[in-house]
Amino acid sequence: MTKVFITGATGFVGKRLILALLSQGHQIYALCRIKGVKVFSENKKNLHYIYGDLRNPETLKDIPEDLEAAYYLVHSMSEIVSNLGDAELEVVQQFIKCVKNKKIKQIIYLGGIINDEKELSPHLKSRLLVEQELKKSLIPTTVLRASIIIGAGSASFEIIRDLCEKLPLMIAPKWIHTPCQPIAIADVLFYLSHVLLNQKCMNKIFDIGGPEVLTFKELMLRYAKFRHLKRWILEVPVLTPRLSSYWLVLITSVRFSLCAYLVASMKSSTVVQFNEIQKILPHRCLTYQEALELAFQNISKNQVVSTWMDAWEIDGYDPNIEDYVQVPLEGCLKDQRKILIKDSKTATTERIWAIGGNTGYYALNWAWYLRGLFDKMMGGVGLNRGRRHPSEIQIGDSIDFWRVLLSCKEKGHLILFATMKVPGEAWLEFRLTPADNQWMLVQTATFRPKGVFGRLYWYALYPFHFFIFQRMAQTIAGEKL
After folding, report:
1. What CATH number is attached to the domain comprising 53?
2. Which residue has the higher pLDDT, 114 or 303?
3. Helices (H) and strands (E) in the chain, counts
4. Rounded to the nearest 10 degrees, how much is the dihedral formed by the CA atoms of 372, 376, 381, 386?
5. Which of 100, 171, 230, 446 has the least CB density, counted as fewest CB within 10 Å?
């Protein structure tokens, strides 16, 4: 049993890697930045949580001394920063300090394929800088460089999916002809897990990709064919990366910062060059078609383990989810609705647990859509990202522009925290309470304003809140069905 340290544990790759390594009998120590948030809602044997922030070494004192290997799966693309490379270096340097004095025998890093070091996007350049910094640590390092990862929930897959599902006609710039070598998430996990403490893989760089080299245009047209959709792509000579990013933000579920970094990287070829890994770990990778089939099998069965939006942050160092689960009472503005349940506690609970995503918010969904669109334009996440599962909710899940802080279906208690762009902090809470041999829904919207502008924001929206929250509570309680 190998003791393995995993950073980026709540991310798209991190969650799935933990499951793969647990199935192989390893003992996992998962680093989570938000205290109280778990990678999985249920307890798993040999999975241990460490709460800390790589930007704050003082929070990392609980890391065991006898760790044998560490995975570095962290990136800083949640926001547009002035220098992504510097931001990435700051974090990786703290990571190295953290593991330097342990018994780490290997660092495993997942980066991006780099064909030309002179012409790199900020994203790929930052990946290269991290790679170089890890090698300087003198700890044996294995670097896996991947092209586009295909799997239900990956940012690249969701962009392709949203574009093809929503747009019969797509306008695309010249980077649509850039070649890449897409790889299924299942194959990425194979390589990540099999290079672990493999002596032949120490201090080496490997490119990993599927069996086909495709352009981005071919990726979308093949997706459309797979989904039996007729799609046309119109190429235009001028469409800057920034305009492309705004276009993707409006159509897809991916936030602006991630779109911007990914679009800039699409100008660079990501075709496998260093294929030595096939000699060390012979493996048949899935074709693009097979990767799509696997992704949609998971979607149809509601078995999407992780998505690009799973990793989340609350501003500030050492965040503790307990500080947010206890919805504040002082200095806040509230809208509370109490409605007697008309049908049954079970039915009301099911309606609460289906909120958001395709279900919507039970009242004036067009207004919620406009609020989401406005949030997108402000650089926020908007409503497009939906939810991981149509009826299951666990702590840490995203539901449109909310994060789940508390989820207790047995008691009918759900607390959501807003990740939208607002001048303050916002909570939406649902609680079922007994009342004279009946059950009552208590729905509370809480807003802790930041300054005068925050208060003006709340009162400006109050007329809308009055109708939206009342109708929403009535529908959830069974009055307006």
Report:
1. 3.40.50.720
2. 114
3. 14, 19
4. 40
5. 230
